[in-house]
UniProtKB/TrEMBL annotation:
Cofactor needs: FAD
Species the sequence originates in: Cyberlindnera fabianii
Protein name: Proline dehydrogenase
Keywords: FAD, Flavoprotein, Oxidoreductase, Proline metabolism
E.C. number: 1.5.5.2
Amino acid sequence: MRQFSSLRPLSRSLPVSRLSRGINTTRATKTTLVPPVSSLHTPTPNGVKPANYLESLSNRILFNYACIGLVTLNKPILNLVIKAFPLVPMSVIDFFIGKIYCGGSTPEQTIATGTELSKRGINNMMLSYTVEDAEGIKNINIDDLVKQTADSIDNILKPHIINQIESGKEAINDIPPGYLALKPSALVADPANVLLNYNNPAWADKWQTLNDDCAKITEQIDRLNNELLAKYPQRKSPFFVSVIDAEKYALQQGVYVLQRNLFKRFNRPDGFTQVVGTVQMYLKQGMDIIKLEEKLAKEGNYRVGLKLVRGAYIHSEPDRSVIHDTKEDTDVAYNTGIKYVLDSLSKDPTHSVLGHLVVASHNADSQKYATDVLASSSNDVTFKSNVVLGQLLGMCDDVTFELINNHGVKNIIKYVPWGPPIETKDYLLRRLQENGDAVRNDNGWPLVKNVLKVFKDRVFGKPQTVSVTTK
Ligand SMILES: Cc1cc2nc3c(=O)[nH]c(=O)nc-3n(C[C@H](O)[C@H](O)[C@H](O)COP(=O)(O)OP(=O)(O)OC[C@H]3O[C@@H](n4cnc5c(N)ncnc54)[C@H](O)[C@@H]3O)c2cc1C
């Protein structure tokens, strides 16, 4: 059992995350493919909420889930699939599992993914158009990447949030912001050296280029936030937010300075917190980083937005001593971080130095903990709308479902990788490995059986279950 002895005990455990662990985004995609079961009934008729999370998924996604079940039947099968992965054409991989994890290869496909998510009560996305090149060995056109990233605000996030608002399905402040994930190691040539040498005059030009690239994208966010605020003045949280992803430890000192520069420039004391930086709570210094950012922002008269993650590089970190000694220590640090930020934000949500929080985790206990603290802290709309839960697309859908349907959560988004198919394979392979990490008792054959049961019910017209009422 997980232990949070110093923290509030959970009243009720959520299901253990089935599809979890790790993030290491690469450019990822899918191509459009016709769902093999498109003639079947669609789920959740008349707004009735299904009791089983599988019932909330489209036929296409269910088909992909069945495929995941089949490849995780047992370890030898999974290992064989992983070995064969590099030889299998991308279109085949994409057909069988791509739709679960990737938002699309074009803005139109990605908006369609957003629309599908909103049918499940997930009303916005954290978009990532990313390419990893921390070692600087790939020949990436950075200008193109910056342009595509900036354009995705206008082409995807803006139409999506306007559709959400105009549909009138949710109150305007119940719709989470659209986030744009910026991966520092993808936004400049030779990124590792640039980040390592952030305070070395010999690297000043390249360091400036990285800062300028992030600022260029965030200027677009700033402009569009002002534009939409003029149209919807009742909005209490940003419509769009720039999020700086965290990298491995050695690069993080540069990343902290980068995100601080953006906080100073774009998070004005009387405005939206439209830049969010990431803190990895598996680091022993995690809590100190939060307090340092808070102190510096107070002195500098700007606001700080934080995305709290546990941290994705535990297996590749050369200096293990910087990370908490045990998983339990990381868990306690993570929930302590959540509590600290929420306490601060709840006191004066419009002006607090810590102005926005993203709880980015697949851990059911942490998500429930954040939800409980949020519910018991304050009913202020500015407070509530500036706290958002986030998970990767295709990961822990059972936890997401439980939060939305049994805990009335509206402040939830999925991290959606999208873009042309160049690096999709690597991203999908990692998701598959993590997913089947695994071959746990809720993957494999039980998953296949449950998917088949949902299909059977849809084909033969059995009504979807109704054990949960719409809040
Ligand atoms: C929306 C989103 C955005 C993300 N962005 C980033 C990012 O920018 N940078 C980044 O680094 N990661 C990022 N991640 C990944 C994140 O850091 C975690 O790796 C991942 O979410 C798994 O942790 P968890 O909170 O879901 O929970 P769990 O599955 O409960 O925790 C697993 C995590 O616990 C920690 N852990 C495991 N074993 C030990 C141990 N023995 N000792 C100490 N700690 C241990 C590790 O951090 C491990 O990843 C993101 C995740 C999400 C959902």
